[in-house]
Write a structure and sequence with these properties.
This protein has a two-stranded antiparallel ribbon. It is 52% helix and 19% strand. The radius of gyration is 38 Å and the shape is rod-shaped. It is of the alpha+beta class and 86 residues long. It contains 2 helices and 2 strands; from the N terminus they run E-E-H-H. The chain has a domain of 48 residues.
């Protein structure tokens, strides 16, 4: 984006072209501030990874427990009942 500035100098007109420089991006907080406040991106990613692995492990253990329960109950439920004879 360019802006044209016109300034009269001794009854002669001169045209000066200047380019507007966009403002610098906002400053980023130092990593020590992140660590102190608990907002470190690395810390957040690590915590999410640990929680995900724990939840997957918990789900897997529940599946194993249900499988073991089914394996022990199915034979009992399928076994024919003995009829009492008089």
């Amino acid at each position: 984006m360019k802006t044209v500035l016109t300034t009269p100098v001794n009854s002669n007109q001169t045209t000066q072209t200047s380019q507007l420089i966009p403002p610098s991006p906002t400053s980023v907080e130092s990593p020590s501030t992140w660590m102190r406040d608990g907002y470190s991106p690395t810390e957040i990613i690590l915590a999410a990874a640990i929680l995900t692995s724990l939840s997957i492990g918990g789900i897997a253990s529940v599946i194993v427990a249900i499988t073991g329960l089914v394996k022990s109950l199915v034979p009992v439920m399928v076994r024919p009942t003995k009829e009492k004879t008089k």
